[in-house]
UniProtKB/TrEMBL annotation:
It is a multi-pass membrane protein. Belongs to the monovalent cation:proton antiporter 2 (CPA2) transporter (TC 2.A.37) family. The chain crosses the membrane at residues 6-25, 30-48, 54-73, 85-111, 117-138, 150-173, 179-200, 221-254, 274-292, 299-320, 357-377. This is Monovalent cation:proton antiporter-2 (CPA2) family protein. GO terms for molecular function: antiporter activity; monoatomic cation transmembrane transporter activity. GO terms for biological process: potassium ion transport; proton transmembrane transport. Residues 574-660 form the RCK C-terminal domain. Keywords: Antiport, Ion transport, Membrane, Potassium, Potassium transport, Transmembrane, Transmembrane helix, Transport. GO terms for cellular component: plasma membrane. It is found in: Membrane. PROSITE patterns: RCK_C, RCK_N.
Length: 660
């Protein structure tokens, strides 16, 4: 019998393998965790057992997920999306549960099931996968589209409904006779909790976090955060509620403080790792023999809920004013089961509300629906065009609006994205009487901007027909104002195909993807961090008395050299890990006795083959001073010289090995 540590290490190793394989095929990591769990579980290879210790550890994954969901539930976000969240979202959850009850009673002829169990199963069925759907829509840049807003609104209500269901289901298992009383008690508990949140969140938590943050200790901040999350979880568990509810309440408490975003970044590693462990344990629950022995039942439980849920959501979305195409896309995005469905099913199973054999079939069907979800979302556009008779017409009308706005424009600028950077550019163009057309996907922003006199239309700049309708053939320049490398590359490839040589300017966060974007056809890439450094340097030089003409020359030279002089930096502990690994580094290599490079010229070392640039060679002139050698003279390296390299972390490692 392996120890807890050995079992946990094995689960983590399995998770890494599963995620690597699924990420290789462009699929969400959650599917990798589930597949790994199924494979190593006691019902398959039998390499790991779902012990109580591992289950308890995995439960913390749900705790931190609910905490993250709680962080999103601030009052301002709910107010801005109230129609979708409390209209469309509430209708979906309530109708799914209500319509599932008679279906469950019909199933009871074969598998014993009470109406309380059917209601609980309806709650599990009403859930969709927040992790899968939001990740895919984010990658497709569709979160701000109409179907994206519908999807996010429904998911928000589903997450809120989980809190209610986690309280209700245990009470149904105990008695179930006084449903009105159970619901009333659950609502009272939630209402008291929410009232407490908005009182404490605005009056106590902000002051406490300000007090803790005042010590400027990351360790203290993290300890305080974990104490609040786990403390609230323990408190709700003590009063007979779920740990997940306590974490959700803690998240809502902190969402009312100014430290929400910092907390979200700090808690993410705990949440992702432990949630992955939770999904592995869910996969371990599945007995693959059930799919083989009860394949008809599993197939029915897979197909019928998928079709039922898709149809219900599509009809509701249509009833709330969405077009047929948008309604079909919304239904396809949310037809699958969700991670909270597993949480509720696990709770139902633990309370012995349904037959274990039927529970296994439901679990298998839910896993299959999640596996197929990425493909449903990927082909949602084609399916909508196939079955929505007016979808072609609506898309044509949308393109007509774009074309109507751009038809009189010539030598204009197309701005992709109308966020803060895009709007600032538009104002400058207006002042110079240069015409422009901005494309954006946020309907609220577009409505406000159009009312304010801006030339912006709804359109996805990553689609070829939208760029054509925007007058790309007549435009003088195209500007990508958002810092998203993948979307920028897609737009640049389209532009290169439609109008080769088109002047295209791209905004990016730093210099990590400079060459990639330039190779794709970007005329200029503007790394905002380096540009900010240039502006800072120019102000300092002017304040130190350097003539304006010389400062302008310095800035111009830096830009003409494609920021070559400024590229790379000496990395510190506070630098962002992801950005640091993608950006160019500066690294100093002292040449000590025995180094291979001693006595050789720089040209002999061929360091450029490793993809690095030699920024400088410094040689000791006195006991404490160094002089900078002229690289054009190709100096012979001596002991004590310091070679300053710039390049990617990998290329610097290779060059350093060649030097030493």
């Amino acid at each position: 019998m392996p120890s807890v540590l050995q079992l946990t290490l094995f689960l983590l190793a399995s998770g890494v393998a599963g995620v690597l394989i699924f990420r290789y095929f462009g699929l969400p990591p959650i599917l990798g965790y589930l597949a790994a769990g199924v494979l190593i579980g006691p019902h398959a290879l039998g390499l790991a057992s779902d012990s109580e210790t591992v289950k308890y550890l995995a439960e913390f994954g749900v705790v931190f997920l609910m905490f993250s969901i709680g962080l999103e539930f601030n009052i301002h976000k709910l107010r801005s999306m109230r129609k979708i969240v409390f209209g469309l979202g509430a209708s979906q959850v309530i109708l799914t549960i209500v319509l599932t009850i008679p279906i469950g009673l019909m199933i009871a002829w074969i598998y014993p099931m009470s109406w309380q169990a059917a209601l609980a199963l309806g709650g599990a069925l009403s859930m969709s996968s927040t992790a899968i759907v939001t990740k895919i829509l984010s990658d497709r840049m569709e979160l701000e589209t109409e179907q994206g807003r519908n999807v996010v609104g429904i998911l928000l209500f589903q997450d809120l409904a989980v809190v209610f269901l986690l309280i209700l289901i245990p009470s149904l298992a105990q008695s179930g006779k006084d449903l009105i009383t159970d619901i009333s008690i659950a609502l009272v508990k939630i209402s008291l909790a929410l009232a407490l949140i908005f009182y404490i969140g605005q009056n106590v938590m902000s002051r406490w976090f300000k007090f803790v943050a005042g010590y400027r200790s990351q360790e203290l901040f993290m300890l305080n955060l974990l104490l609040i999350v786990l403390g609230m979880s323990a408190l709700t568990e003590h009063f007979g509620l779920s740990m997940a509810l306590g974490a959700f309440l803690a998240g809502m408490l902190i969402s009312e403080t100014p430290y929400r975003h910092e907390v979200e970044d700090d808690i993410k590693p705990f949440r992702d790792v432990l949630l992955g462990l939770f999904f592995i344990t869910i996969g371990m629950l599945l007995d693959p023999l059930v799919i083989y022995e009860q394949w008809i039942l599993v197939l029915l439980l897979f197909v019928l809920p998928l079709v039922f849920k898709f149809g219900l959501i599509a009809i509701l979305a249509r009833g709330f004013g969405s077009s047929s195409g948008i309604s079909i896309r919304t239904g396809l995005c949310l037809a699958q089961a969700g991670e909270f469905g597993f949480v509720l099913l696990n709770q139902i199973d633990g309370l012995h509300m349904i037959d274990p054999a039927f529970s296994q079939a439901v679990l298998a069907a839910m896993l299959l629906s999640m596996l197929i979800a990425p493909f449903l979302i990927q082909y949602s556009d084609q399916i909508a065009l196939r079955f929505a008779s007016n979808e072609w017409l609506l898309q044509s009308l949308a393109l007509t609006k774009v074309a109507t706005k751009s038809v009189r424009n010539k030598d204009h600028v197309i701005i992709c994205g109308f966020g803060r950077s895009g709007q600032a550019l538009a104002k400058m163009l207006d002042q110079e009487n240069i015409s422009y057309l901005a494309l954006d996907l946020d309907p609220d922003r577009i409505a406000d901007a159009v009312a304010g006199g801006s030339h912006v239309v709804y359109g996805d700049a990553t689609r070829e027909n939208v760029l054509v309708a925007g007058g790309l053939s007549r435009a003088k320049a195209l500007v990508i104002s958002f810092a998203d490398t993948q979307a920028s590359l897609k737009i640049l490839r389209l532009v290169e195909g439609l109008k080769p040589g088109m002047t295209a300017l791209v905004r990016t966060r730093d210099d990590a993807d400079l060459e990639k974007l330039q190779s794709a056809g970007a005329t200029e890439v503007i790394p905002e961090l380096i540009e900010g450094s240039l502006m800072l340097a120019s102000h300092v030089l002017l304040m130190m008395g350097v003539p304006m003409r010389k400062v302008v020359r310095r800035i111009t030279d830096a830009r003409e050299e494609r920021y070559g002089l400024l590229r790379g930096y000496f990395r510190g502990a506070e630098d962002d890990e992801v950005s640091a690994n993608q950006s160019w580094h500066l690294h100093s290599v002292p040449l000590q006795e025995g180094a291979q490079a001693l006595g050789k010229r720089l040209s002999e070392l061929s360091l450029d083959e490793d993809g690095v640039n030699i920024q400088a060679v410094r040689r000791k002139s006195t006991e404490s001073d160094y002089t900078k050698l002229d690289l054009a003279e190709d100096p012979v390296l001596q002991q004590g010289d310091i070679v300053v390299l710039s390049g990617s972390p990998e290329s610097i490692d290779l060059a350093e090995a060649r030097l030493l």
